[in-house]
Amino acid sequence: xxxxxxxxxxxGESLLAIxxxxxxxxxxxxxxxxxxxxxxxxxxxxxxxMEIESDRVELMAGVRGGRTLGSPVALRIRNRDWENWKExxxxxxxxxxxxxxTSPRPGHADLAGGIKYGHKDLRNVLERASxxxxxxxxxVGSVAKxxxxxxxxxxxxxxxxxxxxxxxxxxxxxPQQASLAERSPVRCIDKKAEGQxxxxxxxxxxxxxxxxGVFEVRAFNxxxxxxxxxxxxxxxxxxxxxxxxxxxxxxxVQIGLGFQGADLPGxxxxxxxxxxxxxxxxxxTNRAGGVEGGVSNGxxxxxxxxxxxxxxxxxxxxxxxxxxxxxxxxxxxxxDVTAVPAAVVIAESMxxxxxxxxMREKFGGDxxxxxxxxxxxxxxxxxxx
Length: 385
What we know:
Elements: E1 3-7, E2 14-20, H1 30-41, H2 49-52, E3 57-61, E4 63-64, E5 67-68, E6 73-78, H3 110-117, H4 123-129, H5 134-149, E7 154-162, H6 178-182, H7 191-207, E8 213-220, H8 236-245, E9 250-255, E10 273-276, E11 280-283, E12 291-292, E13 295-296, E14 301-307, E15 318-320, E16 327-329, H9 340-363, H10 368-384
Helix pairs in contact: 1-5, 1-9, 5-9, 8-9
């Protein structure tokens, strides 16, 4: 089974990740991972923290000569801001009381986390609940993308709206369109919609506000048969929804038409099935978003997600002092006006990891060569149907 764990705090020395279950012989490059980490740090509306950090990965274990060994792969990303937090975040000692947080932010894990774990200093909550942890996820997702690339699978995303702006008129139908998103400061493939998003962000910045938005991730060339209808916890759409929903500030996930399909008759929701000798089984529409009955159906997988505004406001909301219970303003940490363009990259990583895990589950193989043989045999079987 392919799985991963991350560790580390927002202002700790490093973020760590361990990936277990990769086949031996997979080429891994720190440069490729660094490029993905750089993508996460970009985007109009990001805050000062992204000017401090310049994320780079260190391959710590499980890789030799640029190829995986079949043993767990360990990754580390150092926090450059650690130099300013050594005393406050030291693993031993009392820690910096001047950095204590006692005014929980509405919309953040501060209050619920402090109560759950019995913390008096809410920094113990926000340091791990922070979206800084997602840098480690992007590093893991980068490796998953490398694995998927061996089978011609591409995962890419784009922003649909920020702060309620009008959605693009351009459909993200081909993986090549990812280059359009990369050239956009808000990762939007429609120039007109991009301009509206930039204007909306500037307005919110002047008001001390934050903004959420909606984005889409697509996975192209996914083979039919990933996931299962047999058990609730093995359904592909459930896996995708869980993985994307686990990203901080994500409050809604839909596959294909999603909620829109609830308002339409069945004839406008389901994708008719066709067959010819060249294509085999195929659809002329993809309203299901590439998943039927918890199983990939061979069409492009389409996942949309709604991200709420970031909880830290420069004009803070009302709160209550965690210890004295007096009325106060919520704590203010360094923050973004919006992180929707960055969330796209994180969601790509989570979708890629789910697909990589299910590819490993279905096709196995102790080495990448063995896995490729297994996949090719299965695709030959599908082509003959």
